[in-house]
Amino acid sequence: LNWDHSPDVKEDDNAHYVILKRDTSTATWFTAAEKVYNNKYTVTGLLPGRKYFFRVIARNDIGDSDPLDSKDSWYIEKDIELFHAKMKEYHEKDWSHAPHFITLLKNHLVCRGHDCTMSCAFLGNPRPEVTLYKGEVNITAHSKFWYNSTSGVCTLMIPTCTAKDSGEYSILIENQLGKQKCSCTLTVYEKDDRSLLDTVIGSLQKSKHLM
């Protein structure tokens, strides 16, 4: 701040200046400095991003002079902070892996005329291609069977089973990194054929298959 000297300050050894400051958001004046004997002063402690008015008063033992106010507000510039961050070099992880089953097919015992639904779950990246077999025959596109493969779960549905549908069913999953196959057995029995039913149940229990 700069202002013209008051004649009283020049002639009176006890005379001095008082510097006041006021934020534009308030009407209250605050003392920024006292006992200033020069007509120049650097005000400190101002907040960046705020606007201020300043007032200078000459003071001696008798009292204060009329205030000298700044005509315009003073804007305190914000310091630009430079942020530096050292980032580690990013290496994209290779999530590719060969397909493998996490839930296998289970053997099924179905009464003739009923539907049979069998399913399994698998993982693999890239997404494996699914192929269905009955024995050695590819049945993926066979109109008799319905199948769906979504989000790693493959479901095969055989409607209205007959004795001809009995046999081994397999699901092959394959991508560029490998392949895997799982199988199960479907047995279709007649409603009144208790001997076959008892034989199959006994066999399944011995092999610890869940019905």
From TrEMBL:
Species annotation: Micrurus surinamensis (Surinam coral snake)
Listed Gene3D superfamilies: Immunoglobulins (2.60.40.10)
Highest taxon above the source species: Eukaryota
GO CC entries: M band
Pfam families referenced in this protein's UniProt entry, alphabetically: fn3 (PF00041), I-set (PF07679)
Designated name of the protein: Fibronectin type-III domain-containing protein
UniProt keyword Membrane, yes or no: no
Gene Ontology biological process: sarcomere organization
Domain called Ig-like: residue spans: 99-187
Domain Fibronectin type-III: residue ranges: 1-79
Keywords from the named record: Immunoglobulin domain, Repeat
Xref: SUPFAM superfamilies: Fibronectin type III, Immunoglobulin
InterPro entries: FN3_dom, FN3_sf, Ig-like_dom, Ig-like_dom_sf, Ig-like_fold, Ig_I-set, Striated_Muscle_Regulatory
